[in-house]
Every structure is written in C-alpha cells, then in structure tokens.
Specification:
By secondary structure, the chain is an alpha+beta fold. It is built from seven helices and 15 strands. The chain has helices at residues 23-27, 45-58, 68-81, 126-131, 154-165, 208-220, 267-281, and strands at residues 3-6, 9-12, 30-38, 41-42, 88-96, 114-121, 133-139, 170-175, 178-182, 186-191, 194-196, 224-225, 239-244, 248-255, 258-259.
C-alpha cells in the first residue's frame, strides 16, 4: 500500500483526505516541487528547497511545517517506506495556504497550511533521450510570474495537451515573438554554434536542472549567451533541447513538423546530455 505524507503524518494514500475548501483546490493557491532521488539520494536538494522557500515567501504562505530539513526528511522516508530506495524515484511536494471558507483574500491569520508529499517510481526514457523527440510551438499566455512554481498550471496543461494531440513531447512557449521555455521544461537552442537560452526573469521558471546545465556549459567552455531566441529564427536553429528534473537533457529533433538541423540530436546537446548523466549517476 502506498504511503503518503499529509500534515505531519504518514498515512496510506487511500486514507489521505484534504478538505474541499482547501485553497490549493479552490484557487491553485500553493507552491509545489518535484525532486528526484537516485538510490535514496536527492539530487540538487538545496536548489529545490531554496526555490520552494522563495515561492512560499513571495506568496506570503506560512512555511511552518514546510521547512527545508522537514521536507528533506519526508522525501527520504517516503522513498524508503514505499520500497523505492533501490532505484530511481520522484517525490511530489505541495504546500497550499490551507483550508478556510472561500474568499479571494487570505484566510485568517493562524490558518494551518496543507503540506502534502507522495513518492513515485521513476524510469528515465533513455531511448527518447538518445533519439530525440518532437516539439510544437505554443503561445505563452500565462500570468507574468512564471518564476514561481505554483500549482496553478492551466497554461502548461493546455500546451501539453496540444503537444500530445500533435504527437509531440513538448510545447515550446513563445511570448512577444521570443521563445521563453517549455510547458514543463527550460529550453536551450543552438544558433551559429552558440548555445542560447532565455535569461532568468519573471517569465521563466528558474529551473534546477537549468542551473546544472549552465554550470556544465561554463565548465566545458562551450559558447553561451543568455539571450532570447526569436520565433522567426526557428528555421535556422541548429539544435534544440529541453531540460528538467525528470527530463534531463532531451533533444528536440523536429518542431512543428519540420526537422531541427539535420533531424538528429546535435553535438552540443549530446555533450551536455552525457555530462549531466555523469552528475546524476556519478559515472
């Protein structure tokens, strides 16, 4: 039986109940993270913890019960208790503003937050990483605080559904004529041999894997420019890859039905894919 964590208790998933007036359900009023564990070890925990803390602070959600040390211990225990410590797993963490009568303004001071976590077996799709995947373009009409990892995900839901219906892996958002990021990933492009990505701002999520990739780019001495790529440049893009906690480095070899470059994962993409795998697995 799957065990989950809810408000300080470890309980069977079937018995985990959240009130219908929880603000995460009513308003999408909450912050979440997905962390990856390999043989019981959390990858890049400090980055995930800092991003969640920043999101809670920015949205003025009480962090009681969602402290970094508490959540780290929860992740490790859930993976162990669910028999997932021997391989790869992910843990979903969510903190909402809690349950209270429905009002748009905040509930009364002292309303307890809702803290939830669950662990799941994770199996990377190495063949897709090696061979590449399809992508589509999609207008980025999300709210302007994309840097906060909120549970209000209707924009990415619609984009990912469009990708699914097109037989694609990911949707690449574009705003004001510029690519921003993927629906559930950060995106990197190669033009004229230079790696480019949208600079950190309120329009993209500060991805944890994005941090790792930028570090690797600098360590490997690869040409790099944190500068947006225009949608109008799509035809001359040489390589594209997206990255994320469960995505690693995923090449996109076709966008909107047209090949990217020669239609195969590019050299810089492959180099970064292999370098990230060494960080993940220590090999």
């Amino acid at each position: 039986m799957t065990t989950v964590y809810l408000n300080g208790r470890y309980v069977p998933k079937a018995e985990a109940m959240i009130p219908v007036e929880d603000r995460g359900f009513m308003f999408g009023d909450g912050i979440y993270e997905v962390v990856r564990l390999i043989h019981g070890r959390i990858f890049a925990w400090a980055g995930h913890a800092a991003r969640m803390a920043n999101g809670l602070t920015t949205l003025r959600i009480d962090r009681a019960g969602a402290e970094s040390a508490t959540l780290k211990a929860v992740c490790e225990k859930l993976v162990a208790d669910n028999g997932l410590a021997g391989g790869e797993a992910t843990v979903y963490l969510q903190v909402s503003r809690g349950a209270a009568p429905r009002t748009h303004h905040f509930p009364p001071t002292g309303t307890p937050t809702t803290v939830y976590a669950s662990a799941t077996l994770f199996t990377p799709n190495f063949a897709l990483r090696d061979n590449g995947a399809k992508g589509i373009t999609f207008a980025d009409i999300r709210w302007a605080r994309c840097d906060l990892k909120t549970v209000n995900l209707l924009g990415p839901v619609m984009a990912r559904q469009a990708a699914l219906e097109a037989g694609a892996y990911e949707a690449l958002f574009h705003r004001d004529g510029m690519f921003t990021e993927g629906a559930a990933t950060n995106a990197f492009f190669v033009l004229n041999g230079v790696l480019r990505t949208y600079p950190l701002s309120n329009y993209i999520l500060p991805g944890i894997t994005r941090v790792e990739i930028v570090q690797l780019i600098h360590e490997l001495g690869l040409p790099f420019d944190e500068r947006p790529v225009a949608l109008a440049e799509l035809a001359i893009i040489e390589e594209v890859f997206v990255c994320g906690t469960t995505t690693d480095v995923q090449p996109l070899v076709e966008i909107d039905g047209k090949p990217v470059g020669n239609g195969r994962p590019g050299a810089l993409t492959v180099q970064l894919k292999e370098a990230l795998a060494k960080r993940l697995y220590g090999t």
